[in-house]
Amino acid sequence: MTPTTAAGLVEALVELAHRAGEEILDVYAADAASTQKIDGSPVTEADTRAERVILAGLADIAPETPVVAEEQAAAGTIPDVAGGSFWLVDPLDGTKEFLSHNGEFTVNIALVEHGVPSLGIVHLPALGSTYIGTRDGAVRRDADGEHQLQVRAVPSDGYDVLTSRSHSDQATEDFLAAITVRERISAGSSLKLCRVAEGAADLYPRMGRTMEWDIAAGHAVVLAAGGVVCRLDGEPLTYGKPGFDNPAFVAYGSARPPLS
Q: Are 81 and 130 in the same domain?
């Protein structure tokens, strides 16, 4: 059933992300193994089961809106999204975190309009929290209730920087060498973007390869909390690019990137 209000849409998407999360936790409890996709990245039964749930749900919620989903895209099924709104889905971001059982993996559903992620749901099944970013703001839901999110102002004595738990490279080290780093914080998956949105860190640079579905939902949460995600030249990161590959980018808690 298509929701008739914006609030109804958000609640339907949250419920959908939770159902996908239940599929993931079912596999998680079984200590599943992984296989490799063509690009060498790991994929598990949890990825495919969660994506199946999300695709069926989105077909019911918004049947006219095309969906670009990670596992379908890997199989070569990619709809034409030129010039229109579309969904970006990563059913399980942080497969390495999933396989290592550290809990920092996410379900990601984003709505892209005019190249910008206008709505994003990031659900952490193992940690019991859900981040929601809309034009009305950003919130985190967990066992303690719902919490409004707001990025923090850039401090004057250096930056608390999020870096990937599973990916590191020289380009990131070179970027960090150009700024004053007060603390480095490791995290996995799109959770890093959400940490910036809730003011737990000042910025998150990502120099290595990512795909649009990896970060769109977290990007929406950052935007809704007052932050920005931009390319290294300071221009906003946009979506619907050929191949859905992202360039290097930085998520900032301040709407004024310190290196721009």
A: yes
Is the pTM higher than 0.85? The answer reads yes
In a domain, 119, yes or no: yes
| 122 in the same domain as 60 | yes
Longest C-alpha distance within the chain, in Å?
51
**E strands present in the chain:** 34-36, 42-44, 67-69, 86-93, 106-113, 116-124, 129-134, 137-142, 145-149, 159-164, 181-187, 203-206, 210-211, 228-231, 245-246, 249-252
Long-range contacts of 244-248 (CB under 8 A, 24+ apart): 244/68, 244/73, 244/78, 244/211, 244/212, 244/213, 245/209, 245/210, 245/211, 245/212, 246/206, 246/209, 246/210, 246/211, 246/212, 246/214, 246/215, 248/171, 248/205, 248/206, 248/207, 248/208
- The answer to whether the CB of 28 falls within 8 A of the CB of 101 is yes
Structural domain boundaries enclosing 39: 6-149
Question: CATH code at 94?
Answer: 3.30.540.10
* Closest C-alpha among 2, 44, 1 to residue 23: 44
CATH of the domain at 165: 3.40.190.80
pLDDT in tens, 34-47: 554 445 466 788 99
Domain count, the chain: 2
Q: Tens of pLDDT along 63-109?
A: 999 999 999 999 999 999 987 899 999 999 998 888 888 999 999 99
In a domain, 257, yes or no: no
Residue 248 φ/ψ, nearest 5 degrees: -60, 145
Pair (19, 127) in one structural domain: yes
